[in-house]
Amino acid sequence: MPPRIAMVAGEASGDLLASHLIRAIRRHLPDAQFFGIGGPKMQAEGFEVLWPCELLAVHGYVDALKRYRELSGIRKSLLARIRRERPDAFIGVDAPDFNLWLEGKVKAAGMPAIHFVSPSIWAWRGGRIRKIARSVSHMLCMFPFEPPLYEKAGVPVTYVGHPLADVFPLEPNRQQARETLNLPKGARALAMLPGSRQSEVRNLADTFIATARLLHERQPELVFLVPLATRETRQLFDEAIYRNQAADLPIRMLFGHAVDAMTAADAVLVASGTASLEAALLKRPMVISYRIGKWQYRLMKRMAYLPWVGLPNILCKDSLVPELLQDDATPEKLADALEHWLNDPAACRALAERFTELHHSLRQGTADKAAGAILPYLVGAEECRLRAVS
Q: Which molecular function terms from Gene Ontology are attached (predicted)?
């Protein structure tokens, strides 16, 4: 009987991560079967999709509360099937608010519960590690500073590196990216990434456009590249351009092409998040900015216990790039910080060296390393079955 693995992946990023993991496991166990909640990339690897992963995509607390009954029903239905079929393991890929409850129930029922992508316990909600310790059989971490936190709590853990570090080249091809975007030869460019969520774009678009205006006055040759992920976010940024009477600025909005835009740019203005890690792996100088609701910011600031919010600074344990957040995220401060990078090639080279070191540390062959940590649970179950049959 082939090994059976239940999985839950949330959103498109989890779908991609899980698809690579399925492929890596199948290199060792070709007959392995997978089922649960996933997306098209997982399905292309032979995953049985019981519910599509888009159902887990909630945006903020209000949306989560509105959809609580629906999501709770899906989770209970999947748990009932897992208890009935008793797969060899459960793997939750990201989506901690959905998966940790499910993992706790699976573990309590005597099946291994593995979580892939550590929640950000190192940034805030540190007390959450007690719940994780009760819920998971094994944690797979993407960042090298995470395993000691779990080891201290008695959670079996493996550092597997970050998949972006495997995908991104150590030396990005800037010329190719500039050609892809049809940038004029010799033109200087600034990439502006206001976020992938509509709320992020609403909070940052006006400030980013005002920053672009200040920089354009100081350096008229600059071209501003704005990659946006969806039609909705593009429309929001369009409305901000109209609202700020900024149609005269050399702003080029792109549908996607975020990696090309950052690779081609001389500097990057980026909302805090995964895009800041991408910019670091592309060895680009950047300024990190973010704005959220006033009360939400106060709450998060009170719960945070690291001096940084940007992944490049957190991972390097150093204030390598400016973080201008909330009230500090003014056009004047952002423009000054960006102009520092634009006018100081030596500082940019030194930063690129630090980011290259970071890239090496994160490049671990994530999918294969994660599969290697999971296989003992699957192989052990298979051996038990064979002994029972004999």
A: lipid-A-disaccharide synthase activity
Q: How far apart are CA 353 and CA 318, in angstroms?
A: 14
Buried b (16+ CB within 10 A) or exposed e, 304-331: eeeebbbbbbbbbeeebbbbbbeeebeb
What residues contact residue 360 under an 8 Å CB cut-off, 6+ apart?
170
For position 384, what pLDDT does the model report?
Answer: 47
Do 231 and 196 meet the contact criterion of CB atoms below 8 Å apart?
A: no
Reading the block at residue 123, the tokens are: 């940034």
Average pLDDT over residues 318-343: 95
Domains of the chain: residue spans and CATH:
4-161+364-389 (3.40.50.2000), 174-362 (3.40.50.2000)
Q: What is the DSSP string of 99-151?
A: HHHHHHHHHHTTS-EEEES--STTTS-TTHHHHHHHH-SEEEESSTTSHHHHH
pLDDT at site 273: 80
11-37: pLDDT as tens digits: 888 999 999 999 999 999 999 999 999
DSSP code of 182?
T
